[in-house]
Amino acid sequence: MNGIELLIIAIVFFGFGYIFYGKFLTKKLGIDNKISTPSHTMTDGVDYVPAKSPVLLGHHFASIAGAGPIIGPVIAAGFGWLPVYLWVLFGAVFIGGVHDYSSIIVSIRHHGKSIGYIIESYIGLSGKKLFLLFAWATLILVIAVFTIIVADTFKNIPSAGTSSILFMLLAVIFGFSIYRLKVPLWLATLFGVALLFLSIPLGNLFPIELDVLTWQLILFGYIFIASVVPVWILLQPRDYLNSFFLYALIFGGLIGVFFAAPEINIPSFATFELKNVGYLFPALFVTVACGAISGFHSLVGSGTTSKQLNKETDGKIVGYGGMLIEGLLAVLSLVAVASLVNKEFMDILITRGPVPAFSIGVANFLNAIPILNIPLNVGQTFTALAVSAFALTSLDTATRLARFTFTEFFEVQSKKENSILLKNRYFSTAVTVIIAAFLVISGQSMSIWPIFGSANQLLAALAFLAITVWSIKLKKGSLFVLIPMLFMFSITLTTLAMLIYTNLIATNYLLMIISLLLFSLAIVLGIKGYIVLTKN
Known about the structure:
- The chain has a two-stranded antiparallel ribbon with strand order 1-2.
- It has a single domain (3-534), classed as Amino acid/polyamine transporter I (Up-down Bundle).
- Strand 1 and strand 2 form a beta hairpin.
- The radius of gyration is 22 Å and the shape is globular.
- The chain is mainly alpha-helical and 536 residues long.
- It starts with a helix and ends with a helix.
- It is 75% helix and 1% strand.
């Protein structure tokens, strides 16, 4: 089997999934454009802002994609290409797509509130507070992990740092152009995308060379600002423009595969156990993450996307479609590394990491396109820049979501008054960033990754729990979310239990305590959800 066959099968499978299973989900969720979305009923010019579906898809896709659908499949490819491929296909269509689509719709039916609010409505206030604590802890892990990834990338590829700074300045100009100067979207996009790609050679001409710690401090300052400014100024336009970067990467990579016709050079199945990863079950389903399903997506969908959805029917293309596009990116990532000779792939993966392995594979595809003939070094730089750009997107989105989660935890309940400071967006962002910075600077480095992956997937199980309870209460039929919920609970609780044991043996008590706390919170929430479910 070669890369062309794997891609064609994936495209056809995702296409049928979008048309037929997407239609089934639309009916189950009762999509109705007569229902006004929160972006119209609660417009505030900061977080609740109606967005056209292409803009919102770009923002949503850039936020959920990040480096996850690239890094996860590349690492998991050590098990062999077949388990990764099957999990991405079936996971994206029947689990991840369901999770993302339903998270957005359930949120807009509850005034654009987070999954935590839905849990409060159907499980109770204590359940909401436990979920928000879990979500906030997970987001801090996301921030810590992606800060490490982005800072390391900027250190090793200085041009990426320059280009990213230019991206941010361009996004601000783009936001003011379409929202204040009322420049037509097509015209602003034309100039915006041109300037976006121009920033790549400018980055190569004027690289910013700084050490890792300096980049980390700069990133902490950036994400603080990105979290508190209105969404239309930076976050939404930057994600929209960056989505073209990722679309170019996907499109160029896919076209290149058909010219390169790469053979699959790694085994279909290699081993049941990978060093520093774990056993095939449950490690495969936690490691691949974003390419098949990611709990982070429910926080994006119910945290920022639902506040910008123009009409309910946009939920399918943004939520379900966005997840399937991400699945396609995961397949491209798998083909890119599977096209390398097995020894070469393992050497690069061990010595340089998953991003260089992916970049080399895609560069070979781009080089094979006759019209372009992109040199290998240029293709590698372009690919690495794309990965770092979207890791940065996930970073600032996670910070904003952590701010939402923190302030929502301290919202007024009934007649009880809570401190205004605790609900202040500047204070909540500062607390989040400081704790994430402590994790980053503590020296844990990427040893945080397994816990991040487990917490991320367990977050998906908890989101499914909330959606399942909601669907049962409304008598909509729940098997389409109940079965994925049970599956995700089984793999993630197993993983966390193993992490508690391995970190205890390794005397890594900080990570052991984090794993234990996440495991305990999930168990308590699961019990509360079970009690509610059995009453219906």
